[in-house]
Structure formats: structure tokens, C-alpha cells
Amino acid sequence: AQSVTQLDSHVSVSEGTPVLLRCNYSSSYSPSLFWYVQHPNKGLQLLLKYTSAATLVKGINGFEAEFKKSETSFHLTKPSAHMSDAAEYFCVVSDDYGQNFVFGPGTRLSVLP
Amino acid sequence: ETGVTQTPRHLVMGMTNKKSLKCEQHLGHNAMYWYKQSAKKPLELMFVYNFKEQTENNSVPSRFSPECPNSSHLFLHLHTLQPEDSALYLCASSQEEFQGTSTDTQYFGPGTRLTVL
């Protein structure tokens, strides 16, 4: 069975400083991993996904994530935070059939001026 | 525009009401999903439909009844709900690729925010 842990329920950074949102997973399979973002009163939006190709994945809005199998991690980073990045971020793992998606509890990112 | 639309966007209902949530996807996908997002809780998968057939029911109470008349439409019928059912209900779709290692992803609608009085 898969599971996802997001170690921080809330992260607060200043505008212009780096962002690190942590995600660890467990899976019996070779997992596909995703990061989604949800802005207030809006639906989920896919940021990026890892599907057994390059371990460093680049996504939209300057975000990227690195798959580290030895650490079972898929942390999300961005070099410089922008006010518009304030949102809820979800790490997701799926099984080989792409049918069962397990969501982490989410990390709320606050960006201070 | 994500290609997945949900109506209504907001719904307030009493515990004795009957209402339905509608989801429509214009992406040509074969799998559709209902999720529940409650405050301070992870997303919960409720139902999965693959080629119009229900393949998963995650122990959802019978007061929630899904319907998938075709691969583009998904409904969630609501009856005698409880206040704790108040949440954001998200619909998603994906292109079902049964090839061992899927590279597929899910596309989510904006959700219906449901309040049960």
C-alpha cells in the first residue's frame, strides 16, 4: 500500500527567498509522484509529475522537485518565492495502474512581503 | 480552463433535501473520480468509474450515490446528508492506460462547496 507524508502542515517564507516543501512516500511499486497546488476557492492544479524518467522534474511557475529513491523523498523547491505562490500544496503518489492516487495531508505555504 | 467542469459551484442544503452534483469532462478520458476535501483533512477518494463502470467505493455511506451515464458525465446524488458532510467535493478524470506503469495524471475540476445545515 502506498502512503504519503508531508512533514510540515504550514511553511512560511519571505518573498524572494527559497521555498522547500517536503514529501516522503512509501510504495510497493515504482511510483509515479505528483505535486498539486490549490489556491483559495479554486480547484487543484498539477504543478509537476515524476514518472520514472529524469529524477529532477521541472514544473510550472518555476517549481521543481527531485525524486530520491534512496530517501523515498520528492521534495518541492523554488529558488525565489512570489506572493502568488501562497496556497495549499499536495504531494501525491499513484500506483502502476494510474488508478489509485494517494494524497498527502497538504502543506499550506504563506509568503510574507 | 481545465477541461473538467462542475456544477453547482456552491450548494447549501438541509438534511432532508435531495440534490445532485454534476461533473463533465471534455478531455476524452475514460476514468472519472469523486473526492471529498474536508477542512484540515487529506483528500479522500470516494468513487472511481472506469469506462462507466464503478471500480471503487471507498466505504462511502449510502447517502452518497454516484451515477456515470457515459464517460463524459459523472453525478453525485445526495440524500439525507449530515452536517459533517459539509466539504468541497472534487471531480477528476484521467485517461485510463492499463500498461503496467502508468504515466497518466488526473485533471481536477474546481469543486462544489457543499454546506449541510
Structural class category of chain A = mainly beta
Mean pLDDT of chain A comes to 87
Pattern of helices and strands of chain B = EEEEEEEEEEE
**Low-confidence spans of chain A: pLDDT under 50, at least 5 residues?**
none
Percentage of residues in strands of chain A: over 45%
* Cα Rg of chain B: 14 Å
Name the chain pair whose interface involves the most residues.
Answer: A-B, 25 and 30 residues
Kindly report the oligomeric state of this protein: heterodimer
What is the count of helical runs of chain A? Answer: 0
- State the helix count of chain B: 0
Name the shape of chain B in a single word. globular
Q: How confident overall, as mean pLDDT of chain B?
A: 83
Distance between the termini of chain B: 32 Å
Main sheet of chain B, how many strands, which sense, barrel?
A: 7 strands, mixed
User: How can the largest sheet of chain A be summarized?
Assistant: 6 strands, mixed
Low-confidence residue ranges of chain B: 97-103
What is the compact description of this entry?
The complex is a heterodimer of chains A (113) and B (117). Chain A is mainly beta and 113 residues long. Chain A is built from no helices and 12 strands.
Report on the architecture of this protein:
The complex is a heterodimer of chains A (113) and B (117). The mean pLDDT of chain A is 87. Chain A is built from no helices and twelve strands. Chain A is an all-beta fold. Chain B is 0% helix and 55% strand. Chain B is built from no helices and eleven strands. In chain B, the strands form two sheets. In chain B, strands 2, 4, 5, 6, 9, 10 and 11 form a seven-stranded mixed sheet that branches. In chain B, strands 1-3-8-7 form a four-stranded antiparallel sheet, with no helix packed on it. In chain B, a hairpin with a 2-residue loop joins strand 5 and strand 6. The termini of chain B are far apart. At the A-B interface, strand 5 and strand 6 of A face strand 5, strand 9 and strand 10 of B.
